[in-house]
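Our consortium's second objective concerns turning raw sequence data into structural hypotheses that experimental partners can test. To show how far this objective has progressed, the report includes one record in full. It was chosen at random from the queue rather than selected for favorable results. The single chain below, 372 residues long, was entered without modification.
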Amino acid sequence: MSAHFERLFGTQAAVTADAPGRVNVIGEHTDYNGGLVLPVAIPQRTHAAVARRTDDRVRAASVNLDERDAVHEYRLGEERRSGTWLDYVQGVTRALATDGHRLRGFDVLVNSRVPIGSGLSSSAALEVAVLRALRAAFGLALDDVALARIGQRAEVELVGARVGIMDQMAASLADERGALLLDTASLAYRRIPLPAELELVVVDSGVAHGHAAGAYNARRAECEEAARRLGVDVLCQLAIADVSRVDALPPPLACRARHVITENARVLAAVAALEAGDLARLGELLLASHASLRDDFDVSVPELDALVEIATADADVWGARLTGGGFGGAVVLAAPAGTGRAVGARVARGYEERTGRHPTIVVPEDVLALGR
C-alpha cells in the first residue's frame, strides 16, 4: 500500500490506521431506538494511509472501491454528496469542522477488505479508519467514543443514511475476542467474553443492500412515529411488560414496535446465555430474532430466510439469523468451536443448490466453499 500511495500522490504516507468490520450477534434495529446491541469485530479490516498537505485540498483514492488509480479531489469546506464512497470521507471532514477540529488538506488512500453491502459495517470501518489516521496526522483530541460519534454524524448528515451508532462504536471499540454489549442511549459498554465452545460463522448471501435507500430510513421513521404515539422518546424506553400496549397502534407501527421491544430483551437474554455457556439457549434467541426481523420488522429477503433454514437444519448449528440492517447481506450462525469451516462449506453448498446464488463465507475467512 505504501508504494501505491507514493505512486499516486508523489509522497510517502505519514500515518496509517485501520478499523474492523463487525458482525452483530443480536440486537438489530435497536440502536437508533435507544436500545442494546451485541457486536463482535470480524477479521476483515479497512486501512487508510494519510499524508498532510499544505493547502486545503483533499485528494482521495482507493485500492479497491472504484476504478484503479482514480483520484478524487475536493476542497475542505466544500463537501458535496457525490453518491460514491468519497462521501464517507467528505462526511468525516465536514463533521470534524463542525465540531471545531482544524484540518489542513491531506492525501488519503483507502484499502478495504470488509465486504460491501453485506451488513457487516463496511461504511463504519471506512469512517473510523480515516478518522484514526486523521487523528494521528493532525493531533486531534478525540477519544474512541468521540471518534464513533463523528463517524455516525458523517454518515447521517452527508451520506444520508439515518444509521444508529452501533457500527461506528463497534469499529472503534470492538475486537474479535468478545462481544461488545453497548447501551446506545448512554454509550455505556462492557465486553462479554465468548465461550470457548462457541464459533461464530458468517455467510454472505450475495444479495447486496443499501442503507441510504428508502427502506432503512422508512423503518426508522416508523419507529419514531410509534414512539411518539406511545408517549416515549425512543421505543427501548419500553419493556416487555409494555408489549401489549403496541397492539393499539395501526399497522405497520405495531409490528415495528413489537420487534424493537422484544429484540432489546433478547440482547440481555443472549448475554445471560453467553455468560452461562448455554449455547442452545443462544441459538433459540438467534432464531427468535430472525423470525421477528422477518415477520414484524419486514427486513428479511427470501435468500436470507433460505440461509437460516439451511443452517438450522445442520446438526452442528445451534441457531442463525440475519445480521445487519437487512434487505440482503449476511447471516450469523452459532456453531461448536472447531466446526466453523465445515459448517460454512455445507451451508454455502446447500444455499447455492437451492437458490443458484454464490455465497461467500466471511468468517472463518479462509474457507473456500464448493471448491472455488
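The partners drew two points from this record. The two ends are 27 Å apart (CA to CA). The mean pLDDT is 95. Both points have been shared with the crystallography group to help prioritize constructs.
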